[in-house]
Write a structure and sequence with these properties.
- It comes from Vreelandella songnenensis.
- This protein has a single domain (3-217), classed as Alpha-Beta Complex (Spore Coat Polysaccharide Biosynthesis Protein SpsA, Chain A), CATH 3.90.550.
- Helix content is 24%, strand content 27%.
- It is built from five helices and 13 strands.
- It has helices at residues 33-43, 57-64, 84-96, 180-188, 207-217, and strands at residues 3-6, 27-28, 31-32, 48-53, 73-78, 101-105, 108-110, 125-130, 141-144, 147-149, 155-164, 192-197, 201-203.
- Strand 2 (27-28) and strand 3 (31-32) form a beta hairpin.
Length: 219
């Protein structure tokens, strides 16, 4: 299985830290945030990784190179301007191939990767869900008996870690678009499975949460 890391965002919520540095390269416990993802993927035996880049893309490419330092083969999908999550994935599909792939949001920290075997049958996605953090108490989706739905309870938060089948984006026009509506449509068709992860997860969306994560991992 290949993996894709979403790293093309502008990092507006992280300003002023991202005024001159793309968010994936912000340091956490002595290494770039994206470096933690790359190390975890290598430990999981996933060695082909696609990274979409746009904002200060040259810095990311220069810092990570071909991935040999991490024991990986890195491929870059360059976007002239950010294409949002869905558009970024669609542009990268020629690099990802026709098989399901692991998708990781570059601005989360999660001490877990799902088993590729979790995506089964006709499902188009498998989502990792976590307990709702203080800044997102309403959650995103409901999880019942391993199935994810837009409505219902209890509600959990999407961790930004998933397994995606390319068919989820089949026939969608090119350009910038969000992934969430496609996921919700697949949920309505009962084509999305999920699991509840209760370990360490952080949405590294603000300088304060970045600092807290850095302090936790540095001790």
């Amino acid at each position: 299985m290949k993996a894709m890391i979403l790293a093309a965002g502008l990092g507006k919520r992280m300003r002023p830290l991202t005024d001159h540095c793309p968010k994936p390269l912000l340091p956490v416990a002595g290494k770039p945030l994206i470096g933690h993802h790359l190390e975890r993927l290598a430990r999981a035996g996933i060695f082909e990784v696609v990274i979409n880049v746009s904002y200060r893309a040259e810095q990311i490419i220069e810092a990570l190179g071909d991935g040999k330092a991490y024991g990986l083969h890195l491929h870059y999908s360059e976007e002239a301007s950010p294409l949002e999550t869905g558009g970024g994935i669609q542009k990268a599909l020629p690099l990802l191939g026709e098989q399901p792939f692991l998708l990781v949001n570059g601005d989360v920290w999660c001490d877990y990767l799902p088993d590729p075997a979790m995506l089964q049958g006709q499902d188009l996605a498998h989502l990792v869900l976590v307990d709702n953090p203080a800044h997102h108490l309403e959650g995103d989706f409901a999880l019942r008996e391993g199935r994810v739905a837009t409505q219902g309870a209890p509600r959990l938060t999407f961790a930004g870690v998933s397994i995606i089948h390319p068919g989820l984006l089949a026939g969608y026009p090119t350009g910038a678009f969000a992934l969430a509506p496609l996921l919700k449509s697949a949920m309505d068709s009962a084509c999305v499975s999920g699991e509840h992860f209760t370990g360490h997860w952080v949405d590294v969306g603000t300088p304060e949460r970045l600092k807290a994560l850095d302090e936790r991992l540095s001790h």
